[in-house]
Amino acid sequence: MADFDALKEKVENKLVSVFENLTMPAEIKDAMYYSISIGGKRIRPVLLLMFASLNGAYSETALDFAAAIEMIHTYSLIHDDLPAMDNDDLRRGKPSNHKVFGEAMAILAGDGLLSLAVQIMAQRSIHDHEAILAMNDIIEGAGAFGMVSGQAMDIMTERAQAGYSIECIDKAKTGALIKAACLAGARFSSFSDEEIGFVSDFADNLGIAFQITDDILDVIGSTELLGKNTGSDEKNEKETYVTYYGLSGAQKKAEESIDKALYSLSLLNKNTDTIKQLTLDVLKRNH
Amino acid sequence: MADFDALKEKVENKLVSVFENLTMPAEIKDAMYYSISIGGKRIRPVLLLMFASLNGAYSETALDFAAAIEMIHTYSLIHDDLPAMDNDDLRRGKPSNHKVFGEAMAILAGDGLLSLAVQIMAQRSIHDHEAILAMNDIIEGAGAFGMVSGQAMDIMTERAQAGYSIECIDKAKTGALIKAACLAGARFSSFSDEEIGFVSDFADNLGIAFQITDDILDVIGSTELLGKNTGSDEKNEKETYVTYYGLSGAQKKAEESIDKALYSLSLLNKNTDTIKQLTLDVLKRNH
């Protein structure tokens, strides 16, 4: 199976070609494309493609879905950065969307990216049953019970208008879409219900490890490498895995989650080497 | 076929039952439900059900889609009312979403409603081919080339950063989702490609008439009946059908569009009495 960087390049080429073929007003298209084009780890689309490759080469439809899930992730970042939300000026080392295009266009760029992602998935689903299952996984992770609820719980807790636990917030805000990427990929590999269960357990633990390392990086990472301001959690007096478990406690918890993830992965009895590598690399993240 | 008010009641009951069964954080659920529950003409879902009834009783799936399209319309109003967009404090005679729940929760409530609508449609599409076709119609109308582009063109033109024509803006901003409602309904009646073409022509003209009467009401309507502030177009020096064609010219153009719509409707050779009545009532709107 292709390694991370090769799959990342496939995803980025697909994103470019999607936007090359879009006929829509330049102002909104530019705003949508800006946040897509300024980079990112692309971990969700790559995970989708890795799982879609476990029973043979991934399909063109899977690649479309990989692009779609990255659009959904990007829309959530654009809206999260808005002044009314987390008010972040910097994203991936560049001015955030509303700093370049204004708040109105940033709101619409987010709406447009979510809509475009759904449109791509819905078109592919007309004659493809695996696609419609994958679309259901993705929209469940992205949606009212997943990512959107996570962001709502995060904001309400930060503003002391509610008191959701960090596990509860992160599972919805970050974990749900990472899980959706893995599950959607597994659909394209025509996995059985039992195998989907193993993927689900894997993804839950990967999501936790990913969020813990995010929190650790906010303390010990550099703004330069991260492309966003560090120390923001402390500044906002935000409860994180680090404030809750301490730095070494958080690190230990991340390692435990990775162990659990790798165990679930092993139950698939497939050649999952590249997924294993990606999982281990989460612990070594510096951005 | 049931008349407008009976169908409207069915839609409102369905919306209530969807939210009764939602398990999600109260803060975001309340914000989503607030804008759904404060009323509205419900013209899009009723149109969907009317077209879904032309070859027999509409299905439960069609009713779910009717609820979904109203959620999409509502999300667009919440985002349009935001201070960064049209900055409207009043909607349907009540404080707009961000005045009650704050901007952050209003942005998320919009995102949540769009996501929930997509989730409902995607679930129904797993075993229903008409549903996936209807979902494609709706997301095309709502999406990056439809409603979202329309709002972007409107805002850019209003702020003199672009100069899109009123026809072009309204076709995307208002027309696309009205058209999507009619087409989606027609899918559930298993219409042929030719019949879908007649529905499409009908809907294009209905959308134009609807937007023209909106512009006329902004001049001659009352804030009390409309539930939103009138005179806002004049205040914003906005080009409308009235500023462009004059009041009587705009009225004439609305009548012509209705005539064209009714002609296309007649080509279907179905009992379309209630749709005809709804179409004629557009000219008599006072809210």
Short key terms for the protein model shown above:
homodimer; two-stranded antiparallel ribbon; Farnesyl Diphosphate Synthase; mainly alpha; 287 residues
Q: What is the fold-level CATH name, i.e. the topology of chain A?
A: Farnesyl Diphosphate Synthase
Which radius of gyration of chain A do the C-alpha atoms yield? 18 Å
CATH class of chain A: Mainly Alpha
User: What oligomeric state do the depicted chains represent?
Assistant: homodimer
CATH superfamily of chain A: Farnesyl Diphosphate Synthase
Overall strand count of chain A: 2
Helical/strand content category of chain A? mainly alpha
Main sheet specs of chain A: 2 strands, antiparallel
From N to C, what is the helix and strand string of chain A?
A: HHHHEEHHHHHHHHHHH
Summarize the helices and strands and which ones pair or pack:
The structure is a homodimer.
Chain A: H1 4-20, H2 26-37, H3 43-52, H4 60-81, E1 90-91, E2 94-95, H5 97-101, H6 103-124, H7 129-142, H8 147-158, H9 166-188, H10 193-220, H11 223-226, H12 232-235, H13 241-245, H14 247-266, H15 273-283
Antiparallel strand pairs in A: 1-2
